[in-house]
Design a protein that fits this description.
This is Helix-turn-helix domain-containing protein. It is a single chain. By secondary structure, this protein is an alpha+beta fold. Strand 4, helix 11 and strand 5 form a beta-alpha-beta unit. The longest helix has 50 residues. It is rod-shaped.
């Protein structure tokens, strides 16, 4: 090929703009004629040099070649016209690659490979006979890199926008599926398995269900909890409701459960209720009820449902049990807090100590006669005996409900 000719007759000062534009257009025409060959060459280099394209079939060689052809045509059109750039090919490239999961760095690398080959082609053409003037080469270079900047900006913006939309769509779908799981609106085992796969949680537990009160509508009480749990290697799925943030967490061991509870205590900005561990996803709605019972119970921070038979009984039929407790404990609930508090505390301690008065007194740091006196007052106020097994069972259920649901006469 002949060398570049830079004579006085082709300097910027002696050539008018129409002549320069004509030469730049000739470069664009020559590039357009080479689109097919350039695309195949660039596709081969991209497959060889970029690991993502070399190791995955997400984007086929045919798709890669077609995309390169559009991109080179974009450059050729930019050289042949001074009109504003049409960034449609850039937007389509960025969005389509994001849609199939090609990382933006890999897309940008592929485009740089293509542009390097285009630039070499332009240089080769400018050295041909007849040569392209220095003024035209400068103008073509400026137009080329202007087009490059516009293309890459549009492509990157389209890629980011598509990724953002996909994340939003995915999170919306995950939130909806989480709610379906928590509410028990699942038809078959197959559907349950599919939902677990989509939520990225194992299909068999143990799990925990967590419910946290929102401080204000739309504001999460456990900000960033999904990412924080993921950093611990813990899978979870969450749903933000107007009054609560609820989630299901996979906790394969006691150590992981402890980590999760500790994280909740550090993270929570409001009250949190946690269910007892359970193994089957079909049990998720019941576990949500238990988490909400724990949330409604006594305490001001994170409360874990104990999973006791008594607690399960109360949580399984809350309306009926609450009505029973109000009727049975009406006299106690009418007392002032200072008077009712020691009676509630004494009965729960007596219950926990298996009806042993001495152990109860030791735990409460009082005299055994004080415990006996308080138990007699409870008998008088409720009409139930603490020595009759059936009536003791009724009292245990009533006190459990009163404690968990923080019952008051009003």
């Amino acid at each position: 090929m002949a060398g570049l000719t830079f004579g006085a007759r082709v300097t910027m000062t002696t050539m008018d703009s129409d002549a320069v534009d004509a030469e730049v257009g000739r470069v664009g025409d020559a590039l357009a004629e080479r689109i097919g060959a350039l695309a195949r060459q660039a596709a081969a280099v991209i497959r060889r040099e970029i690991p993502f394209y070399a190791t995955t079939d997400v984007v086929s060689e045919e798709q890669t070649t077609l995309t390169i052809e559009r991109n080179v045509r974009f450059v050729a059109d930019a050289l042949r016209s001074s009109s504003p750039f049409d960034v449609t090919p850039a937007v389509e490239t960025g969005a389509s690659r994001a849609q199939v999961g090609v990382p933006l760095p890999a897309v940008m690398h592929a485009y740089r490979v293509t542009m390097a080959l285009v630039w070499r082609e332009i240089i080769a053409f400018t050295e041909a006979d007849p040569p392209v003037s220095r003024a035209a080469l400068i103008a073509a270079t400026r137009r080329l890199w202007d087009a490059n900047d516009v293309f890459t900006d549009a492509m990157a913006a389209a890629h980011r926008e598509q990724v953002t939309q996909m994340v939003l769509d995915q999170e919306t779908e995950r939130a909806a599926l989480t709610e379906h799981l928590l509410q028990g609106r699942i038809d078959t085992d197959q559907s349950l398995w599919e939902i677990a796969e989509l939520l990225r949680i194992p299909t068999r537990g143990p799990y925990l269900v967590i419910a946290a009160t929102v401080p204000t509508v739309g504001r999460a009480p456990l900000p960033g909890i999904d990412n924080r749990l993921r950093a611990l290697g813990v899978h979870s799925a969450w749903r933000l409701l107007p009054d609560q943030q609820i989630g299901i967490v996979y906790t394969p061991s006691e150590a992981v459960r402890s980590q999760v509870i500790d994280l909740l205590r550090r993270t929570a900005t409001t009250r949190v209720g946690v269910s007892a561990p359970f193994s089957e996803l079909q049990s998720t709605p019941q576990a949500l009820r238990f988490a909400r019972v724990a949330l409604a119970g006594p305490g001001e921070a994170v409360t874990v449902f104990d999973g006791s038979a008594l607690g399960v009984t109360v949580a399984s039929a809350p309306e009926a049990v609450i009505e029973l407790a109000r009727n049975m404990l009406g006299g106690l609930l009418d007392l002032a807090e200072d008077d009712a508090g020691p009676l509630f505390e004494t009965f729960r301690a007596w219950e926990a100590n298996g009806g042993n008065v001495a152990a109860t007194a030791a735990g409460l740091f009082c005299h055994p006669n004080t415990v006996r006196h308080r138990l007699r007052r409870i008998e008088q106020l409720t009409g139930r005996s603490t020595s009759a097994p059936r009536e003791v069972a009724e009292l245990c259920v009533a006190f459990e409900a009163a404690t968990r649901f923080r019952l008051r006469r009003d």
